[in-house]
């Protein structure tokens, strides 16, 4: 209904500036109509914004996953398929999916959020004997990484990244969130009381 539209009401009330401002900001889309011999442009809200990426671990419902500690190496899935099963993949699949390969031969594809993406960005992590605290989604072998541990010379250490200047811990290799400087891979001994 033209007369009931918010933009028509703004135009009728003489608030042309408000409509022009909304158009300039890309908030409204335009439809041109003719009313009473005059050309009227009806503005409609533009499409909703795209969802933002978050650095927080996803808030899954507790009954949709189980928490587990899994040990092994993070590998490219295509390498394991070729090495263990002789299955070749197309070239573009070479570095597409990361998976945890356990010593028992189990494969757990990794959900690539910020903590999962760390293994894509930093090849040093793929060389570690890892112990991962994960959420395993029910009815699936997919895992979401919560914490990364490694076993170095018989000692369990927690792995993350650290900015010495800002004293900030981060979960993937990138410039510091604060000073934009370089950050270091950090391995801290885990206290006996920590899982």
Give the helices and strands, then pairings.
Blueprint: H1 6-12, H2 16-24, E1 28-35, E2 38-45, E3 65-76, H3 77-85, E4 98-101, E5 107-109, H4 114-121, E6 130-137, E7 143-152, E8 155-163, E9 168-170, E10 184-189
Properties at a glance:
36% strand, globular, eight-stranded antiparallel β-sheet, OB fold (Dihydrolipoamide Acetyltransferase, E2P), 195 residues, alpha+beta
Structure description:
Helices cover 17% and strands 36% of the residues. The chain has 2 domains: 6-45, no CATH class; 62-189, OB fold (Dihydrolipoamide Acetyltransferase, E2P), CATH 2.40.50. The chain contains 4 helices and 10 strands; from the N terminus they run H-H-E-E-E-H-E-E-H-E-E-E-E-E. The chain is an alpha+beta fold and 195 residues long. The longest helix has 9 residues, at 16-24. The model is unreliable at 15-34 (pLDDT under 50). The chain starts with 5 loop residues before the first helix and ends in a 6-residue tail after the last strand. The strands form 2 sheets. Strands 3, 4, 5, 6, 7, 8, 9 and 10 form an 8-stranded antiparallel β-sheet that branches.
């Amino acid at each position: 209904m033209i007369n009931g539209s918010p933009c028509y009401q703004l135009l009728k009330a003489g608030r042309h500036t408000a409509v022009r401002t909304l158009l300039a900001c890309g908030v409204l889309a335009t439809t041109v109509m003719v009313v009473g011999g005059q050309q009227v442009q009806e503005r409609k809200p533009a499409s909703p914004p795209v969802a933002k990426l978050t650095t927080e671990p996803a808030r899954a419902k507790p009954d949709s996953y189980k928490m587990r500690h899994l040990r092994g190496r993070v590998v490219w899935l295509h390498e394991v398929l070729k090495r263990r099963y002789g299955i070749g993949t197309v070239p573009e699949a070479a570095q597409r999916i990361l998976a945890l390969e356990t010593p028992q031969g189990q494969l757990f594809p990794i959900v690539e959020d910020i903590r999962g993406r760390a293994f894509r960005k930093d090849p040093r992590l793929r060389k570690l004997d890892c112990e991962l605290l994960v959420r395993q989604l029910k009815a699936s072998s997919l895992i979401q990484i919560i914490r990364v541990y490694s076993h170095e010379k018989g000692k369990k250490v927690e792995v993350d990244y650290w900015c010495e200047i800002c004293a900030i811990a981060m979960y993937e290799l990138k410039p510091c969130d604060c000073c934009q400087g370089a950050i270091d891979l950090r391995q801290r001994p885990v206290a006996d009381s920590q899982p």
